[in-house]
Amino acid sequence: MEIYKVIFFLLLNFYSSILIVCFDPLSLGSAAIVGIGSLVYEKVYCRWKECCTEKEIPGDINKLENLLKLKVYGQHIAEEVIINALKSHWDEKQPPSKALTLSFHGWPGGGKNYITGFIKESLFSLGGASDHVHHFNARIDFPEVSKVLQYQMQLYEWIKTNVTKCPKQLFVFDEVNKMHSGLLNVIKPLIDYNSYVSKVDYRKSIFIFLSNTGESLITEQMIKLHRSGIERNNIQLQDFENLIIKGSFNEEGGFHHSDAIKSNLIDHYVPFLPLELEHIRACIIDQFQVRGIYAPSEDDILSILDYVEWGPAPENIYSKTGCKRISQKVALVVHKYWR
Ligand SMILES: *[C@@H]1O[C@H](CO)[C@@H](O)[C@H](O)[C@H]1NC(C)=O
């Protein structure tokens, strides 16, 4: 593919130089030739093939900030860590010294994938459909334990060729806890400090790991904090980070006894907190709004809350499934409003 791009670019420059020579051979220098060439390149070539400029990769952190504020409930720690980490990572004034690596932990339905979706949408014009966005699911993409070596080679090759093409790539690894523990070791040299591996610079890329590991530790810690009277909004990253590191290191899965963790290459462990009644309510109302219903009845909200399971005893204040399946449940009752 690369070679086509080069040929295309050269051809464009060639034609535009002929044009320029015909019209005004003296005053327009070679700078102008290249200028016109790249203009046409951007206007034409980037139309049918995703390029690697600010247009395709706006990296719009303000948009992300607004989306998270508007659409995510109960995850103040995650929001803060993610925004700050991304803001500094693609800061042109201070190039990063290593690839950004974030590891999201917590209960299903807490918003790990949901927030990842907003990250894709804000960093890349085409969002999840962008060629620069890669979402791997352990069970679907790397299912067979016996093929780990093959997966490793394939993964390395994919990451390398994509980053060579365009340095700002996003790699998401979903269900890391179900991933064979050796697989992620292949990434380690790529996410290390000042990583130039075979002349490829990986420092601008972003790796996000999603897993349920640490969920019970997070919940236990939440209950402890709750019992000692600390308000949810005052809970901080420091209250969790060490717990999660221990958790993902010891539980089975992609990080199990992993080199990446041993050598501290994960920049931030991000806890996704279990959601409480008020957050689930907000999710429900949000889902009604998505379907154009701005004043759902209290009865309907309660009927959807009935599906939600709470735990752990005796407090039972945390939803076991977060906002998962709320959307489907709301879909079941909205038809009433359409008559
Ligand atoms: C880029 O990564 C994707 C996986 O997301 C892979 O299918 C594709 O082949 C890679 N591109 C190149 C040029 O290797």
UniProtKB/TrEMBL annotation:
Cell inner membrane: present as a keyword of the record? no
**Which regions span the lipid bilayer?**
6-39
Q: Where in the cell is it found?
A: Endoplasmic reticulum lumen
Q: Name one GO biological process term.
A: cellular response to misfolded protein
GO cellular component terms?
endoplasmic reticulum lumen
Q: Which SUPFAM superfamilies does the record associate with it?
A: P-loop containing nucleoside triphosphate hydrolases (SSF52540)
Q: Which GO terms describe its molecular function?
A: ATP binding; ATP hydrolysis activity
Segments forming domain Torsin-1A C-terminal: 275-330
InterPro entries to which the protein is assigned, alphabetical: P-loop_NTPase, TOR1A_C, Torsin
Any Pfam family from its record, for instance, is TOR1A_C
Q: Which domain of life is it from?
A: Eukaryota
Keyword entries, A-Z: ATP-binding, Endoplasmic reticulum, Glycoprotein, Membrane, Nucleotide-binding, Signal, Transmembrane, Transmembrane helix
Signal sequence coordinates? none
Q: Which PANTHER family match?
A: LD13476P-RELATED, TORSIN
Q: What is the similarity comment for this entry?
A: Belongs to the ClpA/ClpB family. Torsin subfamily.
Q: In its UniProt entry, what is this protein called?
A: Torsin-1A C-terminal domain-containing protein
The record lists the organism as Pyrocoelia pectoralis
